[in-house]
Design brief:
This protein is an alpha+beta fold. The chain has two domains: 61 residues; 188 residues, Aminoglycoside phosphotransferase (APH), C-terminal lobe (Aminoglycoside 3'-phosphotransferase, Chain: A, domain 2, Alpha-Beta Complex). The protein is 44% helix and 16% strand. It is globular and about 65 Å long. The N and C termini lie far apart (60 Å). InterPro entries: Aminoglycoside_PTrfase (IPR002575), CcrZ_PhaseVar_Mediator (IPR052077), Kinase-like_dom_sf (IPR011009).
Length: 265
Amino acid sequence: MYGLDSNHWVISSAGGVTGEAYIAQSTDNKLFIKRNSSPFLAVLSAEGIVPKLLWTKRLVNGDVITAQKCLEARELTVEEMGSKRVAQLLKKIHESEPLVFMLAKLGKEPLTSKAFLAHLHEERKLHPIEPAIQEAFVFLKERVLEVEHPVKRVCHSDINHNNWLLDEDDRLYLIDWDQAIIADPAVDLGMTLYGYVKKDAWANWLSDYGYELTDHLRLRMHWYMLANTLTFMFWHQKRHRLKEARQYRQQLNELNRMTHKDFSH
């Protein structure tokens, strides 16, 4: 399979939503194989953000196969997400010009807050309108121009501690870049801080990242956190993943409460 001699390699699914990833294992090697990875992967590898890309092959059917060495690595714990090294790697990602250049070359355009909201409006048409959803949209619409920020960088946009890997040589990586976008860095910052860092530690974490915790940054993070919660909830509802959709609905309710408490005029 995929150019690997089946007499020497055992191929198994690596799981994941897309079903496009595999583990190839021989006596001496263990590879992570992915079908039709974006060319963006090569830049991420060159920047040291993902494990090193070993080779790329184009098959006769047009599929492109990439191979990375499977690391002896572990996922970060929830507690470790508040560490200085996470802040610094995220800053490195957000400052990388090669990442922006390649993603733009692949057709990704910088996303404004208005574009985020327009996409959400289209998604909302496919789902029942619940009071919590309506409430969130009122806030998003009222503040859409206020949160617009001129700096647009490559954002992972699916920050989760399971996507952060620490290898046996103490190197930190951020994997699973299928949802990468060019947008306000507040997209990633909000997911990280809301998800993993206590509010009284936000200023210190952002200091390690290189930002000051201003009122405008708080607003931007909250706005994008609310928008992404709706995005993920709609995504799971569309695929009848009801357990996950309920979890995002609960998160939406909590964010709405925070909106009333911290961002009401």
